[in-house]
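User: Predict the structure for this protein chain, please.
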Amino acid sequence: RHDSPYSDSHYFIYKWGGCPIKNRLRDEFIVPAEHGKAWRINEGETLRIIAIDGPQVGDLAMFNAHNYNEVYDPVGTYWFSNRSGTGNNHHIKYMYSRPPAMNIMAEITDDPVAEHWILCGGRCNQQSYEVRGAKKWYRSCQSNLEEAIRDWGMPPEKVPDVFNLWMYCENTPD
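Assistant: Here is the predicted structure, written as structure tokens:
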């Protein structure tokens, strides 16, 4: 089963580091559907992501700005969140980087939807479209992320696992 629990207040707020939120807008932009964008968030800054065009799923990839090899880890985040009592299969408070660092990369400070596919980390790509019978090339989450990190000097194989915003999935017997 796959649902997107969209509402007009469909947003996510993250805070990087331990500094208080300063309520100063540094940047604002719209990422068109089926495209990607990369930007830098500094420690202590807040990121607010809003879905403005109806039900959608967004892929959020996170890199340490000082070490692009340190990236968000959905499995570690899922495990730490469940073990520490700060999250479950669909909602988390902290987002961790993958081993060996396992640092907190972001804190979720507001999440009115609280329904995300925490454990997945995957994304659609050309090969998954072909398995489903596609005969031509389509933009995919993978190609959107490749495009976004290209300007930062990263090749396609550097696209990490992602946080699947607003993607709610359950495994059922059928």
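The chain is about 15% helix and 20% strand.
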